[in-house]
Write a structure and sequence with these properties.
The structure is a single chain. With 215 residues, the chain is of the alpha/beta class. The protein contains seven helices and seven strands. The chain has a seven-stranded mixed beta sheet, with helices on both faces. A hairpin with a 2-residue loop joins strand 6 and strand 7. The radius of gyration is 17 Å and the shape is globular.
Length: 215
Amino acid sequence: MAGPDASAVTGEARKLGFSLDAPAAEALAAYLGLLERWNRRTNLVGRKGWRDVLRHLAADSLHLAGFLDELDLPDSPLTLDLGAGAGLPGLPLRTLWQEGEYILVEVREKRAGFMRSALARMTLPRTTVFQGRAEDVLAERSPDRKADIILGRAFMPWRELLDFVRPMLSEQGVVLILSNDPVPSDMPSGWIALKSRLYKVSGAERHFWVLSPHR
């Protein structure tokens, strides 16, 4: 079964409220088609068909692109996407939001291999895969700087994640959490919520949180 073409992806994205230009649609079509093929033999995501993946999983990435455009970020930020798995949200996100350098961090070989295969078919600037432990990525890939954005979806419970990533953040760095729950009022000591956003995917409420350590 052939994967989607760019026009089919453009049409489905339009139904979700997103307008894709030709390069974004082509890159997203390449990603969705490859994911659909790999998923037949390796269970990368629970959703099977490419439309299902777009509506229920990649839609988060498209919402996230608009949210990131609203943030006060440094020029050319370094983003670490921890536990990137099958490239969600990072690879669909980069079809729309291409600021700075974006590193997809994944310890599992098959998933890292899938993301490298996807990147070979997509035209995404300054987007790379690091296969290894998250605590090693900066030392090996970006030893002269720290991260401006650290993105966490299901890498570890978010309160544990904050302690884990704090040494990895730049002076103005932030942690971006994708959650099914609103940002809590009881932030851990030393952390504040700078911004949050409620959005909906397939009728379900989801949230972005931007958290920053007190400095």
